[in-house]
Write a structure and sequence with these properties.
- By secondary structure, the chain is α/β, with parallel strands linked by helices.
- It folds into three domains: 11-89, Arc Repressor Mutant, subunit A; 99-164 and 280-302, 3-Layer(aba) Sandwich (D-Maltodextrin-Binding Protein, domain 2); 169-273, D-Maltodextrin-Binding Protein, domain 2.
- It has ten helices and twelve strands.
- The chain starts with 10 loop residues before the first helix and ends with a helix.
- The mean pLDDT is 88.
């Protein structure tokens, strides 16, 4: 059998083979990759001749992979994925003029930190495409470990031991009550002060919820959750309408226009947490991610302290 290592099989053949295999049709594959159908058929025939085996069973309406084609497809996908990784790495080396970055963030960071960081980043590196995914603490850690996101901005220390961290800032959890609530006259509340109140908090898996549960458990109290929601804007509107006591990270209130509510520190115990970057131990931090981290740290220094 001829060798796939000879010069008869080229990268374009692998791309064409994958396209036909995934679309199940020479006509559809040709349309997607921008070739004439006869040209695509000729290219696949060249590849089959070079390998010495047929790769497709051709029918009038649809073509199917042969046994050899089925065996070859995962190898082709792996080669093309590695070539894409190489392209991304080379993009990063070209002074960040091109490239991409997939980022996972806590929803609470979308109020001040993330918008300002993105604005500065795009001013300096307009060619870098950033994909942002809002995730809970648990989902973020799993995504960074799995490699589906390159960088996370979440709670530290993480529960996942294979993650390394860089601290960005620390903050406390705050209790938010309607402006006319008797508690609004105070500057702080305890777990006992809010234990009988309906609480508005994020769903399970979010760091705020986990911290609150631990605090209630330590005080041997049971929280009464009235509503679970991840949107801070909606939560604050619910508080203003008398829906309950909202529990939010302090950073979500930074520079926010004052509404008909009062934000109180939670004490005895004080509920504080670190916010920082999560990356996988042993994984190389690409230049785009490193540049984003640098800018985010500068922005964090300009924001109100915890």
């Amino acid at each position: 059998m001829p060798s796939i290592l000879n010069h008869s099989v080229e990268l374009r053949h692998l791309l064409y083979f994958q396209a036909v295999a995934e679309h199940g049709s020479f006509t559809r594959a040709a349309s997607v990759i921008g070739l004439r159908q006869p040209t695509l058929s000729q290219q696949i025939q060249q590849m089959e001749k070079a390998l010495g085996v047929p790769l497709f069973d051709r029918a009038r309406s649809r073509c199917r992979l042969t046994s050899a084609g089925e065996m070859l497809l995962p190898y082709v996908r792996r080669v093309l994925a590695e070539m894409e990784n190489l392209r991304s790495s080379l993009d990063d080396l070209s002074e960040l003029r091109r490239g991409s970055l997939t980022l996972a963030v806590l929803p609470s960071l979308n109020h001040r930190l993330l918008p300002q960081t993105l604005a500065r980043f795009h001013q300096e590196y307009s060619g870098i495409h950033i994909k942002i995914l809002e995730m809970s603490v648990d989902d973020m850690e799993r995504a960074v470990v799995a490699g589906t996101v390159e960088l996370g901005i979440g709670v530290i220390p993480p529960a996942e031991p294979s993650l390394r961290t860089q601290t960005l800032f620390t903050e406390e959890l705050m209790a938010v009550v309607p402006a006319l609530d008797p508690l609004a006259e105070q500057t702080s509340v305890t777990i006992d002060d809010i234990r009988g109140r309906p609480l508005l908090a994020p769903p399970p898996g979010f760091g705020t919820r986990t911290m609150l549960l631990k605090a209630f458990s330590k005080a041997r109290r049971v929280p009464q959750f009235a509503l679970e929601l991840s949107s801070v804007d909606v939560l604050l509107r619910m508080v203003e309408s008398g829906g309950g006591v909202g529990i939010v990270p302090a950073s979500t209130l930074w520079d926010r226009p004052q509404g008909d509510y009062a934000a109180l520190r939670i004490v005895r115990p004080t509920l504080s947490r670190g916010i920082g970057f999560l990356t996988l131990h042993g994984a190389h931090t690409r230049p785009a991610a490193a540049a984003f981290i640098t800018i985010a740290k500068l922005v964090a220094k300009s924001l109100p302290p915890d």
